[in-house]
Amino acid sequence: MDASATSNIVLTHIGSSLTVVGAIQALKSWLGSTAWYKKIAAWAPRAASAIGAIAVHAGISWTWQHQVAGGWIFNATIPPLSVLLLSLYHIAVQYLYQETAYQGFSGIQSMQQNTALQQEILALLKQLPGAPAAAPAAPPAAAGAAK
Hints:
This protein has about 150 residues and is mostly helical. It has 2 domains: about 5-80, no CATH class; about 80-130. About 70% of the residues lie in helices and about 10% in strands. It has helices spanning about 5-30, 35-40, 45-55, 80-125, 140-145; strands spanning about 60-65, 70-75. The mean pLDDT is about 75.
């Protein structure tokens, strides 16, 4: 890849990131004291960041251009619909991969938590009066195999 192309990509990501972060901070300062924003404050910045990331991934770019006569112009470039649809497809596939991995790891964590919970319950049951001090006996099939 050409060095100038790489620097253009890096500058695009840095500029887009700064624009999104600036927009999020501006919204926080303007809307931060409202009751409805306080309800969505936990997830709204992440949603705005995700929307900005999707826009950059889809090839939507924006710049502010200073005019010689004074003032600024917001310039946005949006790719053709076919490119946007293909980007949405790739985003959806990536989301499915991430969700599948998340659900899989959540299941593993749930099993680990259940094992720890079972051990805690057994420890509490052993503290009850009349509880056996030793571990439970092996099932009859296993006992017969040992003879």
